[in-house]
Specification:
By secondary structure, the chain is mostly helical. Helices cover about 70% and strands about 0% of the residues. The longest helix has about 45 residues. It is found in: Mitochondrion.
Length: about 80
Amino acid sequence: MHPPLTLHRHPMCAEIIEQFQKCHLDHPYAKFFGECTDLKIKLDKCFRQEKAVKRKANFEESKKLKERLQAYRKEASGTENIM
């Protein structure tokens, strides 16, 4: 099972998605007997790579947000002690 094959949500895999969809259109019955399996495997690998890239970017963004939050908390706790 794969996520919905929308090109705008998976720009890294757009070419493989198009090939996979074309294969399904060109082989409406043979697709059930493994005609498009090679493309499906390539598509799954591409989705895994795309997910790894997104996961890394989200982690980096999370680290930056945590640092900003800690700096804000430190600054806020410092101003409370002065008053």
